[in-house]
Amino acid sequence: MVEVGREQWDAVVVGSGLGGLACAAYLCAAGKRTLVLEAHYVAGGNSQVFRRTRGGRSYEFDVGVHYIGDCGAQGMIPTVLRGVGLAERVVFRPMDPDGYSTLLFPGLTFRVPSSWDRYRARLLETFPDEASGLGQVVDIMRSVAQEGGRFQNREFEPQDLAAEAPTFIQWGLRPITELFQEYKLSEQASAVLLGESGTYATRPSRTPVVMQSGLTDHYMRGSFYPQGGGQVIAGRLVEAIRAYGGEVRTRAPVARIRVENGRVAGVVLGKGGEIDAPVVVSNADLKRTVRDLVGEEHFSPETAERVRAFRMALPLFVVYLGLDIDLAERGVPNTNYHIWGGYDIEGAYAQLDEGKIPDNDWGFVTVSTLKDPVSPHLAPKGCSNVQVMTLVPLDYGLWHVEKGPADGGRYHRDPEYRREKAAFTERVIGIADRVFPGIRDHIDWKEAATPVTQERFARSTGGTSYGIELSCDQIGPLRLGPETEIPGLYLCGASSPSGHGIGGVMRGGLITAGAVLETDLLSLVRSGEVFGDREQLPPLRDDWDPWRDSH
């Protein structure tokens, strides 16, 4: 029953990650009055940025956007933006096509080019004694990625899968380690093929071939960075939502999703009050959505147990550095660095699963000021913006924290937490020192985020950035969403069937909007259809600030 005088919307989206924002933008463009509610003070989820100023010098750091693939004219991310009239409003700057990522192993450096043919040739040149088997593995990965992509984009019907995607059927959902073993790859060659696996944080023996193949394929058409930083994508989607009749509210936590008489009725706000809506899309953490926002009692016992059993992906420890030197002037290439202490990647993940810091850990170093030298916010003139991260165990005991902040735990001023965080910060800076020797002598700003920090701001279970682990038993249709067994309740985000990553969550948001509208939006948008009246969008401004406009 609708209460007179209470706020009413056609749809409410809980959480403003890019999946939720993309979903809301399409719902608004299709004529549904949609409200996005975000607990934090800025919208964007893991695509947001934060700013720091000291002594008149300012830095802007990305939380989760470090490099993006598939941003050419027909790429998924530009396609999703184009479908709501935002095509020309986000510029993607290419990284070094001959080495967008540089893999550093003991005694071996491998630059990953943005081309399947060049990638294959460089691998065979690096491992000439394994040319036959390695070449076949790369060919299989390429076929799996391309066949899987065609199926994902609905270019053929599910009943035609065996005929249209035979390599995907044979290998796609099997562990990548089985493929390597079948063709007798060495530990070194296998490690190079898995060199960027930290970007999905799944143990190789649980990683489906389609996951690693899809990740590689994602960057074989180019690696990019959005000009102006990750907040630009969120800011433009917020712009579209507001222009098309919707609203984005920050500092507006949701305490509960209301289910009445077996279907969604709206939300209860964390600061008091209720909002009516026949459709609620949760872009929040999947486990917290089922357990806390909705309540397990509203789901079947099988669904509740299934969600409880999902494994979360490993979380990250991130160090944000402002340097008083310009790395571009020192000839540093526009590349990301993936640094491995050894070749036993399965062993490193095994130690992480056991709650230990690996002996041969992975580190990722990226320089925002190289990727976007024109942004006025990233760093002062003559300085550099660097981010360094590594994978850590899910267990908060490492940080001397018993209860996470989403469950009311307090940690920030605890002396043991602060000591452990400071010590680990220095360890992670040591990873960057392998790439930029003497980096400690040039640190102008230093800050770090533990998984507990991630949970505080994103309410993610275990403090992960990647949602539930993307493994052989938790991939695609084995996940929940976009529709649920509760009428009116929909899901999107990193734990949805479309997966994590900027492209994954934006595609997922589009699919969820299509489910709400009972329309195949994905096919329509891929065919070039644009929703919403672009004339309603505000004029482009040189002084537009995506961070401020996302509040």
List the helices and strands and how they pair.
Layout: E1 11-14, H1 18-29, E2 34-37, E3 49-54, E4 57-62, E5 68-69, H2 76-82, E6 92-94, E7 101-105, E8 108-112, H3 116-126, H4 131-152, H5 161-164, H6 166-171, H7 176-182, H8 187-193, H9 209-220, E9 223-226, H10 231-243, E10 247-249, E11 254-260, E12 263-269, E13 274-276, E14 280-282, H11 286-294, H12 301-309, E15 316-323, E16 336-340, H13 345-353, E17 362-367, H14 368-371, E18 384-391, H15 415-435, E19 443-449, H16 451-458, E20 489-491, H17 501-517, H18 521-526, H19 546-549
Parallel strand pairs: 1-2, 1-14, 2-10, 7-16, 14-20
Antiparallel strand pairs: 3-4, 5-9, 6-9, 7-8, 11-12, 12-13, 15-18, 15-19, 16-17, 17-18
Helix pairs in contact: 1-10, 1-17, 3-4, 4-9
Please describe what this structure looks like.
The structure is a single chain. This protein is α/β, with parallel strands linked by helices and 551 residues long. The protein is built from 19 helices and 20 strands. The chain has helices at residues 18-29, 76-82, 116-126, 131-152, 161-164, 166-171, 176-182, 187-193, 209-220, 231-243, 286-294, 301-309, 345-353, 368-371, 415-435, 451-458, 501-517, 521-526, 546-549; strands at residues 11-14, 34-37, 49-54, 57-62, 68-69, 92-94, 101-105, 108-112, 223-226, 247-249, 254-260, 263-269, 274-276, 280-282, 316-323, 336-340, 362-367, 384-391, 443-449, 489-491. A seven-stranded mixed β-sheet has the order 8-7-16-17-18-15-19. A five-stranded parallel β-sheet has the order 10-2-1-14-20, covered by helices on one side. Strand 11 and strand 12 form a beta hairpin. Helix 1 runs parallel beside helix 17 (501-517), helix 3 (116-126) runs antiparallel to helix 4 (131-152) and helix 4 (131-152) crosses helix 9.
